[in-house]
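Below is one such protein, fold included:
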Amino acid sequence: MTFQKNIQIISVLLPIHSKGLFSYISYVPVELGNCVKVSFGSKHLWGIVWSLQGIKVPNLKEITHIHPHWKASSNFMAFLHQCSDYTLIPLGSILRMVFPVPEILDWPFSWLKCEHSFSYALQECPWPGTFAQWVFSYGLQRVKKWIENAHLTSTEMNQYSSRYSCPILTPHQQSALKNIGNQTTFIEGITGSGKTEVCLSFIKSIVDAKKQVLILVPEISLCQQWVQRIERYYTGTIGIWHSELSEKSRKFHGWNILTGHSSIIVGARSAVLLGYKNLGAIVVDEEHDGSYKQAEGPLYHGRDMAVFRGHHEKIPCLLMSATPSLESYWNIEQNRYSHVVLSERYGDAQLPYIHMLDLKQEHSSSTSMITLPLREALKENFTKKEQSLLFINRRGYASLWVCYQCGFRAACPNCSVWLSVHHLPKSLLMCHYCGFKKSLPQACPECCGLENLKLWGAGIEKIGQEVHSFLPSARICMLSSDICGTPIQLNETLSKIQNQQYDILIGTQLVAKGHHFPNLTLVGIIDGDFALSHLDLRSGERLYQVLCQVIGRAGREKIPGKAYIQTSQIQHPLFCHLKHHHIQGFLQEELSTRKKYNFPPYVRLVSLTFSGTEENLVHQYALILKQRFPMEPFVEILGPAPSLINPLRRRWRWRIFLKSPKNYKIQNYIRKVLNNFTFPSRLRLHIDVDPYDFL
């Protein structure tokens, strides 16, 4: 009878693509949030006890394990529920991102608890490293033998502890640090103002309180940069999380994060959804960056999820940028975020002086992409042994390959775009959307002509060739995702730049991601107009942010910097604000435009996209779905309309946009329709709340 009283029927949330919970029976006491292992079909899965009130049905399976070292708090569960409710991602899919490597939970963990006790002893080991790292590499028995040979007592071993020193702050930075509260705080600082140093001092206060800090970065390449910064002041274990980690590294870092052995974690957007032992603060670096928006799979914005998590966990969330996103700026104006401003560059550094070059007036040869004033500035900088950066937001050598004899253009067989020409590492035609590649033909595939093959639109490779023609002895480095394909390659290249092994850098947006080059004093923008004609409500905002960030790479130390912007729209208001470093004026003007046309952040926008290999079927179901939405005075329905790039990766796409006031719960309106809507399995429906991609 006593045994029967302990029986519990519980509801478990499992990491599968499902909206529902699953009932299990437990013969041992369990609590809300317990991490439990259960049998599901032929698999064994870890899940979270979501409710202690399961549904009693025949032949219930019982839970097999309760994890002794990790449990979801009620605050964390509330955060996951809001993520699902806001993004319309099924709760089970959200949990899959919390447990991205389920094997972590199966590991034997008792020996890992000894890491802090034995790390001191391992100073006597033949090679440096943390306890866990050397157990993974050399096995537990060998590590134990090292400890025994060190002849250290438990008291001596316990003397080991992580140490965190602090960077020296200016009075202005100290004032900013004091104004960071226990809520969402935005640190707005001009490029080179020392936001990082303020952040590092803030992190120390969290680590000293024995809590974990998550630092989100928009690009994987920035993870190692942040780790190197932290290692100057911190001696403990730093966790890393991003998609490029090997399986072994993901297990190692995932375990340290889950069990609290990593006090500081640096990660890409997916790290915001991980399970933590004792999360104490979240930092979002370069919060304006569009890379925080997930483009495929479950669609969410890493920055917004960080703000949600900070709110539910009741911990500080620190957003940082020199160029605030319009959404964050609007939240500051609505007093939803506190606002800290760093208006001076660190040390004696000054903001670069900006020269505007009107392409309608500057005399340059018909084949040159670099105007004479910029060319002379590059030569002068090279003579002074100072580094220069040329920015062009176009990968490869040229954007179009054309036969003037018959009009043939090389098009992608999978996407409705033209193929770009690449010469590095070898001559190819490449699609920048699906990755399709083929060798660059010697003759036109249509008319077999050899004489009238032309290239249009210069990329970074063409610019590099042009610079070499007038500065043949300059050491030129090109930075793009094609050339620096992996984080390791990129970090090696960045290290060489910082060590002044290159004179001139030529790069795409990859160079605008918060890098610090002490000897770089000149920036040249080859095409300042590249996004002004894009059919995207955020194109102007993105252009200002990218140009401001790129220009901010110049003159970050004692030598003053300067920038040259080549444009054919020199009177455009964006360039007027940019030249005078007047970001507040630009943001206010952009907000006025958005308000005038009833665009975000003043309204909520949701995109529903059907995709499939049969265009007519995709269009048909997009029309059917639109008709299912009832008339609602607070909801405006736009479309369906074909996507701008159609097809993409051989899939046709039709989109519906729904627009509503911010205070209207449009997710409930959509959910009510979709709960009773079915469509063929060969179609996909992508739901994107607050879309960033309009292609």
